[in-house]
From TrEMBL:
Lineage, highest ranks first: Bacteria, Pseudomonadati, Pseudomonadota, Candidatus Muproteobacteria
The protein, known as: Glycerol-3-phosphate dehydrogenase (NAD(P)(+))
GO cellular component, one term: cytosol
Molecular function terms from GO: glycerol-3-phosphate dehydrogenase [NAD(P)+] activity; NAD binding
Domain Glycerol-3-phosphate dehydrogenase NAD-dependent C-terminal: 158-291
GO terms under biological process: carbohydrate metabolic process; glycerol-3-phosphate catabolic process; phospholipid biosynthetic process
Active site: K169
Family: Belongs to the NAD-dependent glycerol-3-phosphate dehydrogenase family.
Amino acid sequence: MAPEKYQVLILGHGEMGLAMEYWLRPRHDVLIWQRHPKAGRPLDLSAAAAQSDFILFCLPAVPHFELATRLKPALRQTTGCVSIAKGLDDSGRTAAQVFHEVFAEDVPWGVLHGPMISEEIRAGRPAFADFASLNPQAHERLRRLFAGTPFAIRYTRDVFGASWSAVLKNAYAILFGIADGLGLGDNTRGWLAVECTREIEAIVTALGGAAATPYSLAGLGDLITTATSAGSHHHELGRKLARGEAGALEGEGVHTLKTIYRHRPFDPAPYPLLRLAHDILTQPLRARELMAARLEQVYRGA
């Protein structure tokens, strides 16, 4: 039997949009939407959405609400909407929270999180992710969409736990770059891996997620990948902070830290490493001092 061929609309053509296109264009009919295309006129978004079997949101969380609201009237009941965003929008919502608010149960939706470095995907290497959705049939359709690619997809119903695990790991990954930039060694990296994951678990469970989810591909798997990858944007951000660079630092982890402290979706006070990441972000010239102070507390058993 010939594999199914789908109509796929990819929103955004950055690193992950390119990666999704690399996998899907040889097997499916793919359209790309960019708000500001480099050439030609923008794609008619509503018309393209109306014909799509899948819409992949390969862009930051910030425009998700606007785009989801704009697209919803054009969608068929079977159109699968999938986000890979690992950040918060300007109101402090994850992509899963936005989709839940806009789509509810009207269309199948989910979030896709895990070790998926774009450069590796486009080099033909394997990738792995958790697909979090309240709709098991959406998972089966997504597996068929990516059939024939080196992409392993696991299913979980813990939508908000997976989403928050992926969001938080970018904030915590910055600490690994800071530690490396300060020359603190491999032992410190191992300690950070354990303690960051413990804090993510505490936050996720406080927000209603499952305790196991932070140890999944969406959590620990993606954290280790982001924290140790030579080309990781968030790791390099940490190194810049360790050097005291306080310029225009950008990235989902930076935006996440700022948004958490602005909107307080949870109280950051009980989480010393999250506080440390935020404190160094806002006071990079004190990076060594602040990290040393936290380690001194750890030495004393605090």
